[in-house]
Structure formats: structure tokens, C-alpha cells
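Fig. S4 source data, part A: sequence.
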Amino acid sequence: MRCPSTLVDESGRLRALEEYALSERLGLPALAPVVRLAAEMFRMPMSAVNLIGEQHVFFAASYGIDACDMSRDASFCAHAILQDDVMVVPDATHDVRFHDNPLVTGEPGIRFYAGMPLRSPSGHAIGALCVIDREPHAAFSERDQERLRDFAALVSDKLELRRLEVAQQMSRFHEIAATSPGPLLGFNRKLELTFCNVAAAAVLGASRETLLGRRIGEILPRLDERRILEFIGNVIATGVSQHAPIETLALRAEGAMLPVEVVFFTWKEEGEERCGLMLTDITERRNHEQELFRLENFDKLTGLANRKVLRHEVAGALEEHGAMALIVIDLDSFKDMNDTLGYKAGDELLHALSERMSRLLKPGDMLARMGGDEFAVLLRGRELPAVRAFANTLLTSIGKRLDVAGHSIRVTASCGIAHATEQQSDAEELLGNADLALYQAKSLGRGHVSVYLPALRQEAIERRQFDAELHHAVENEEFELFYQPQIHLETGSLVGAEALIRWRHPQKGYLAPAAFLPLLEVSSLAGTVGTWVLRKACEQASLWGQRDEGRFRMGVNLFAAQFLNGDLVELVQQSIDEYRLLPRNVELEITENIILNQDAAILDTLRQLREAGVCIAFDDFGTGFASLSLLRDYPVTQIKIDRSFISNMCCSTRDEATVAATIGLARNYDLDVIAEGIETEEQLQKLKRIGCDEGQGYLFGKPMPATEFEKRFLAS
């Protein structure tokens, strides 16, 4: 740790500090709101005005800092007073001066520091205003530094008022006030100015000569002179040397109104009570407060109200007991566009859409950005049919073409509507209802509108309970894999198996996939469980493959979530290598729904897997809308004909024709075919006659545990 140097005129500096009569015991309460505001403005957890004594330092005011080492040797601010300007330490752990400092290694755990020296009227650095964080910051911009200088100037004004208060007690007021950097005015009982220092004249934009003799009411027109006399009377009556600060406006010489903070004070001189005031220009503070207000209440990108403001407006609208509704809008696949075109294009899109939606509003409506790609509209005075119509208008407007970053883009969105009832009084409940309706809309696909119904809340409760059970299942290894045999129809020989997940629930026993897969697929656990299924299935394929000279093929179903992390190719290759399989031993099964939701990202991943030799099966073929185009565009090696066609093919000539056409189509694309759901001998014979390669179904065996599969199909 490098200890700070002492200044050349250290004795003069300490004498200047003594003029404020502050100590470790005695802070300066007037500075408390300043350090709090500084912490909030810079979004830092800690801020302080730190005064530097001979061996120790002490806080005149602090925010968010508990007990810590107050020695001068450890003080960051003792280094800051050696600077002429703001001292910035981006990461104390990488700074040779501070990396082993007890304030870094212990409490308060400083990582980032920015401090501005505070100087007395004599020019001596008596301390520093600082903001501190427990996390490093890569940058502290010039604008941030300018803000810190402004806050330091405000602190200096407060300190100067303290110095004058001490001077009053020493009957040296005029001597010190004349050269004080603080704007000071003295006046008599008639409220006529009798004293004006250079700083006050500068603030008011006039010469001292033109100010002397004028009444206080002319300088501070918003303050009634009777109130001024009342303030002074209170100061005298209570024996307190100064009044609490008052914010008002001062009239400058050219006619402009200046926001100021005024402190009235009295002192005794030659046995008489004297009156004065200190003016502080608070323009910058007001600007900072306004900016802080904007940051806390409005979205920086779009300028729209944020969730906090919307919640307040919803609460107010509910109190009016009139017709009102809330629409929550979420853009579909916005993350994909961000990943593809970049965040700058994403920001442009959000800004353009916010302007487009704003143009649809009527007086009394409000559009807010909830965060990310989610918006909300508060509608007053509309019944549900009109709200539905407005939501559809919104979706139509959003869906119109936009030119963003040199690209022509069309986006879709989903809407959830919550219509307030007369009995409803809770804003958060209405927001939650709209979110539940949005969840319902998105589950239906892109571009849908859903209206909240009470049943959706019960479904949400059940989903949360079920989600908790899913987490418990993962932690307690309650998932198992069952295996269904896949048979070569002509020879009757085993060619492979499909791995199918089952849940051994501690109370309900084995659960079928339909009971939990829909929720698992959209939960945060989908990627984790999908990886486990992949590895477990590959492990089993390795054991069984050793018995048939490596020809055994294991089918593994994928979740859409496994494509989102970008590491699926690596995970598949790791599993193949770890269990000493050939790529052709693994067949990854995808459905049309997965592809349609993430087509751009998935296509590249699937191509990489196919190039590596892994088989790709298109599951449930024939049940969707885009199967033919997907066969053309995606690198599949096999299609699985859905069981719905197989079950009806013996009694429906259309279904039989569909199966035959599908097999012919697969031949033309040079793809293998497997029929799912074969349950009867008649179905088997028809499939063999029309040239189907492979099949699976209850005729050959239900999904079963690995031990039973071995006994039935691999015992020899």
C-alpha cells in the first residue's frame, strides 16, 4: 500500500481546516442530502464528504458507509487532495497504490473510487467529495466528472456557510464574508441590503453599488417580506444562528429568474443582532435532480414512461372506477433480430415502433416501455370490444415494414389484455393479469391477442407449483429414460431405439410425457434436462452398440432451448467422443415447431451436426404446415411418419395414400423412413407392401426401462 504524501503547506492546510470547527464527532447535517443525491445520481452505493486531518480522516457526511479504517494512510481521499481535479480509480485491485489497502481487502470493499478535492477560500485542499462502488467501472466519463465537480461546488457552499457561522461566533463576519466564495448579503431590520460581497454580486449579475440599499423582496420576489421577518424572528427566538435552507427564485439584473437556495442567519456585532443570508445557485442541482427523475421514471431509449410510472397511472385510473384496460405487448423473436443485426439495429427498431404506437393513442391513453422488447398501453374509457379492436390495430401497425440499419424488416408481436372490473383496486394485480394473458397469447404462436380470464391465474399457480416440482425432480434425479425398439420391417431385426423421458414422481408414480413435457419444454430447465437426456442416451447406446458391432442407432429428442445457448454441436460431439460412438450411432429428432420458432439459428446448427456425420430425423412428419419446404431446406436424413396416419391407414384410403406418398417423397429426397405407432399386424403388412423401411410401435414393444429392453432384444 502506498501512503499519501503530505502537502507542502501542510500546516496552513490544517489551519484552514480548523476554521470549520468540524470533527469526527461533529459532522455537518446540511451535507447529508448532497451525498445521498450524489450516490443516487451516479448509481453508486456509497458517497462521502471526507475531511483530511493530520493523522486521521473523518466524514462531514456519508451515505452507505459503515465503520472502516479512518487512518490518513489508508484514505483514498488523502490521495485525491494531492490532485488538481477529479481522481478516478477504475479498479482498486489493479492499482498499485491501493490493491492491498485495508479499505479494499476489508470493509467497505472499495473497487471503484472517484473523488474531487474540496478547497477552502485560501486555496487549501481540506478534503474531498467521493463516490464509491464495490464493483469496478471501466469508465467515468468527462460528463460524469463534470457532474462530480458540480456536486463538489455545492458541498463547498455548505462548508463555507459553516465557516461563516464559526466566524460569526468570533465577531469576524465582515472580515471573512468580504473574501468568501459564498454569495453573502447583509441587511437591516427594514430588509434593506447593507452588505454584498463579490460572489453575491456575480450571482445576481449586478454591481455591489447597485445592490446596496435595495430591499430583499426585490432580490427574492417569490418570498413575502413578512415571511422573511418571520424567518429572522425564529432564528433570534430559538437562539439558533441560522434557519433551514429555503428554495426560491432570485431576480438577476437582466430580468432572468435564477433557482437559489437561501439560508438566513444572524450574528452579534458590537452588541447588536445583525442579519444576513447566503445565496446558493442551485441550477445544476435542479438539472441533476431532473435528470435523476427522468432516469427513474422514463425509458432512456424511447423517452416513454417506465413500469414505475405506468403502475402509478394504473393505480390512479382504478381509483376513478371508470372503464379502463391494460394491454401488454411483446415482440416476437426480437432476440434473434438483435443477434443477427446487432443491438444498434435493435434499438432503432424499438424507437421506431414506440413512435408508431404512440401515434395511435388518444388523449388520456399512455404508452410505456416495460423493459427489453415489452411495452404496455393504458386505455381509459373503452369497453372490452373496443380494447380488442385497438390491440389488433396495434399488431397491424407493428407488423408494417420498417427500414432499420439498411434492412427491410417486418416484426410480429403478441398482446395480453386485462380489462379492469369495478371491484378491482390493485394496480399490480391488473399488471399481473395482463402478463398472464400475454403468456397465453404467446403460447398460441406469433401475432395473437388474448384476454385475461380468472382461469389463467389458477393455471399460472399450477405452473409455478409444477415448475417447483420439476426443479425438485432434477435435483433428486427423478427423471429416467425408457427405450422403444425400432425395427427393420422386412427382416424384423433391431436397428435401434428411441430414448423417451419418463418422470418417476415420488407421489404420483411414473408420469407420461404428455403430463410434464409441455411445461418442461418452456421452463428454464429445458436445456439442463435436454443435455442429461443426450448424455444418458449416448451412454446407453455405447453399451448396446458393443453387442452389434457398432450398428445400433439411438434416437434422441431435442428441446428448442438446446439450440439457444449455441453449444449444442459441441455437446453432441463431446458425448459421441466420451462414449466412443460413431456419429451415425446418434439420431437427433426435431419437430416442425422447433424449426419454425428458431429457424435461422437452428439451420446452421443442424448443418454443422450433419456435416459431422450425425443423423437428423424429422419427427411427426405430416402434422404441420411447412413439412415439404423444411425437407428441402433442412439437412434431415430420415422422416418419421406420424402415428395418426398409421392408425387410420387400414380404414382410410386417404391416410394410406398419404403414407404411400410420403414414402415416395422420401425416396425422391434420398431419405430413410420410419413409421410410428404400428400396433397391428395388418398395419405392418401394408407398410411393408408400400416400401416403408423401418417402424416402431406397440406391436414391437412399448417404451421400457433399459434392463427390460436388454432382456427382450439384446439377450442373445
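Fig. S4 source data, part B ends here. The two ends are 75 Å apart (CA to CA).
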